[in-house]
Amino acid sequence: MKMKSLFVTILAFFSTALSAHWQQVGHAEYTWGPFHVYSVGLFSENGSYQENQSPLMFSIKYEKPIEGKNFAITLIKEMEAQQLSADDTNAWLKKMQEIFPDFSPNDILNFVALENKGYFIANDTVLNHEFDAKFTQAFIDIWLSPKSSFVKLQPQLLGKEKGEQNPQEFQYQPASEPFDEENTMPELPPNYDPQNNLNG
Length: 200
What we know:
Layout: H1 2-19, E1 23-32, E2 35-44, E3 56-62, H2 68-80, H3 86-99, E4 108-113, E5 117-122, E6 125-126, E7 131-132, H4 133-144, H5 154-157
Antiparallel strand pairs: 1-2, 2-3, 3-4, 4-5, 5-6, 5-7
């Protein structure tokens, strides 16, 4: 019964990502010195962004190997700059370090931001934790707040400046086997409607 309940929960999360008709707002590349570390894309249902809009999806495609625990620390450092409660950020760090895998080049980490909650999808796997509205807003603010340390990336991320865009960039295409009821960790279909989610 536990596995059935978990699977129903995962399907509920995933159906939200599928039902949203994702269109790319924009994307930007994060570099450190001469190194392209990762690209981040912003998606909405209509291909544009307004403040307090939901749902949104952020897609991070890694270009360099990054340990999941270290990436969680990076995210929390950005959140701490928003003057959030230390109790909140400590709890969020612990949870992200529990659920984040290590990332290899071409891996994709999606964060789906809904009105009152958010969750991560690593490649084709929904990570087993639902984050609350406070975390969700803090994650959005990492990228879109006027106080963000990524403010120089915002014109491209918001589609106000166009960089070179590869329409396949944020699609993950693993080898996937058909669903098997006996499989305790079934694979979920990737790409969130790949024909329509990358306009822009």
